[in-house]
């Protein structure tokens, strides 16, 4: 499907330069950028849903276990 979009000159210029550097078409660059953006933000929606679901219930984990989990998580590379 074809569509028209408006972009500021500086963004379009940077996109064209980047597309030339990567040896891809401007259309392909914009398509890839949109796919990446949508992937990233669909994860945001999942996180929001999980926060809503888990935010309704009070924590029922023993304090000692919760503390151990917090220590273990803080050592993880995210």
What do these coordinates show?
The protein has helices at 9-22, 26-55, 63-74. It is an all-alpha fold and 78 residues long. The model has no long low-confidence stretch (mean pLDDT 86).
Average pLDDT across residues?
Answer: 86
The ordered H/E elements are HHH
Q: How many separate helices?
A: 3
Secondary-structure class:
mainly alpha
Secondary structure: number of strands: 0
Query: Biggest sheet, in brief?
Result: none
Low-confidence stretches: none
Large-scale geometry? elongated
The CA-CA distance between the termini, in Å, is 38 Å
Topology:
Blueprint (H helix, E strand, L loop, with lengths): L8 H14 L3 H30 L7 H12 L4
Quick recap:
72% of the residues lie in helices and 0% in strands. The chain has 78 residues and is an all-alpha fold.
Give structural attributes.
about 80 residues; mainly alpha; about 70% helix; elongated
